[in-house]
Amino acid sequence: MKLRLARRAVGDAVVVAVEGELDLFTAPFLRDEVRDAIKLDSPRLVLDLAALSFMDSSGLSVLIEAWRLATAEGGGVCLAAPQGPVARILRTTGLDRRIKVYPDVGSAVGEI
């Protein structure tokens, strides 16, 4: 399994669960999903990263683009439950200082 995505509404926010590996080959799928979620559902986006096992710079660029799109629409982006290597790359790059990270989807939805 490379990448699986699932989108659902939670209150007036939209949650996209990201499972598997986010890399050069799979990043375009998340990019399309995020664009659709923001345009069709809500600019208040939570990315559930609990089941994301790997992310490279292509994935980081999608997160940054999601943040830009959502904020341009008057919303925002939060990240929920990044694990191990994904949490490390967020800290190492400093992206966790630009996009808020929460321990779970519930707390992220409550803050966005």
TrEMBL record:
Family label: Belongs to the anti-sigma-factor antagonist family.
STAS domain boundaries: 3-112
Name by which UniProt lists this protein: Anti-sigma factor antagonist
Pfam families listed in its UniProt record: STAS
Family annotation (PROSITE patterns): STAS
Annotated GO MF terms: anti-sigma factor antagonist activity
NCBIfam families per UniProt: ant_ant_sig
